[in-house]
């Protein structure tokens, strides 16, 4: 049974607090990985994550230097500080990897995501969807008499908030690109 501090009227331990006081905090980190643009590199990077049970929340890949044949992989992942350090170290050991940057710890960065939302509705719901799209600066990229397709760019939090508001108005489908990120400054 938990001890009760009678003088202050507070409990030092609660039988209902199931959190482990020694557990490390789970953090979300955005990693930018510069790699050779060749067959199998992405599979090796993903294999590192899946083989060790690490989760990938977001993954984007694109060639960034055509002449140098390099691509940039942006990965959003979660884990304890020790797990994040282990991921970075293991990524750095993969032969086609040139650089690994933790944008979360290296200083200010800019993160953006593009999403498309198909929202079906008539009457007041249609009007409300258009009003919210205007507030969020979403663009209408397709329209029929019964639905809209909105395009929105912003932080993952902004995309999540827009989705939450569109669900009761008739959200039917959503497609997200994943996070693209760069460090700020020189």
TrEMBL record:
It catalyses: 2 pyruvate + H(+) = (2S)-2-acetolactate + CO2. Keywords: Amino-acid biosynthesis, Branched-chain amino acid biosynthesis, Transferase. GO terms for cellular component: cytosol. SUPFAM superfamilies: ACT-like. Gene3D superfamilies: 3.30.70.260, ACT-like. Chain A, domain 2 (3.30.70.1150). Transmembrane segments: none annotated. Residues 30-105 form the ACT domain. GO terms for molecular function: acetolactate synthase activity; acetolactate synthase regulator activity. Pathway: Amino-acid biosynthesis; L-isoleucine biosynthesis; L-isoleucine from 2-oxobutanoate: step 1/4; Amino-acid biosynthesis; L-valine biosynthesis; L-valine from pyruvate: step 1/4. Dimer of large and small chains. NCBIfam families: acolac_sm (TIGR00119), PRK11895.1 (NF008864). This is Acetolactate synthase small subunit. It comes from Rhodovulum imhoffii. The lineage of its organism: Bacteria, Pseudomonadati, Pseudomonadota, Alphaproteobacteria, Rhodobacterales.
């Amino acid at each position: 049974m938990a001890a009760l501090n009678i003088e202050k009227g507070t409990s030092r331990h609660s039988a209902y607090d199931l959190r482990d006081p020694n557990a490390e905090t789970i953090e979300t980190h955005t990693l930018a990985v510069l790699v050779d643009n060749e067959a199998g590199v992405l599979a090796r990077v993903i294999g590192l994550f899946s083989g060790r049970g690490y989760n990938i929340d977001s993954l984007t890949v694109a060639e960034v230097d055509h002449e140098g044949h390099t691509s940039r992989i942006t990965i959003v992942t979660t884990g304890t500080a020790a797990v994040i350090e282990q991921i970075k170290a293991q990524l750095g050991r993969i032969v086609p990897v040139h650089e690994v940057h933790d944008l979360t710890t290296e200083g200010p960065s800019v993160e953006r995501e593009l999403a498309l939302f198909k929202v079906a509705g008539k009457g007041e719901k249609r009007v409300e969807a258009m009003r919210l799209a205007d507030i969020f600066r979403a663009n209408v990229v397709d329209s029929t008499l019964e639905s809209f397709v909105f395009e929105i760019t912003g932080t993952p939090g902004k995309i999540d908030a827009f989705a939450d508001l569109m669900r009761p108005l008739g959200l039917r489908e959503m497609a997200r690109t994943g996070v693209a990120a760069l460090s700020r400054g020189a």
